[in-house]
Amino acid sequence: MFGLMVRFTCKDEAAAAGFDDLVARTGAQIRTNEPETVIYAVHRVDGRPLERVFYELYRDEDAFAAHEAQDYVRAFLAEREQYLSSVEVDFLDLVSGKGVDVEH
Fold first, then answer.
1. Highest CATH level, class, for 2-92
2. Where are the domains of the chain?
3. What pLDDT score was predicted for residue 3?
């Protein structure tokens, strides 16, 4: 398994609404077209209305590379910049989990 967590901070409330729309459109494509994307979850952060946290889990690094190569993901990466003031990315090494097979 290959995973990452990304924290996005939007510029303002209007930017957050635009970002949420972009996320919804992109997420629909991911759900339809990426069987090797195991989890792609987007969360609002309680008490911080401009923050969003993504948790992404892929079958392996090749699945992540395939995700990143999709036209709709590349469009998301380009379009998101207009809405954001910061992006923090942590790559994760899955140790244990429910609903996923952990291979080491």
1. alpha beta
2. 2-92
3. 96
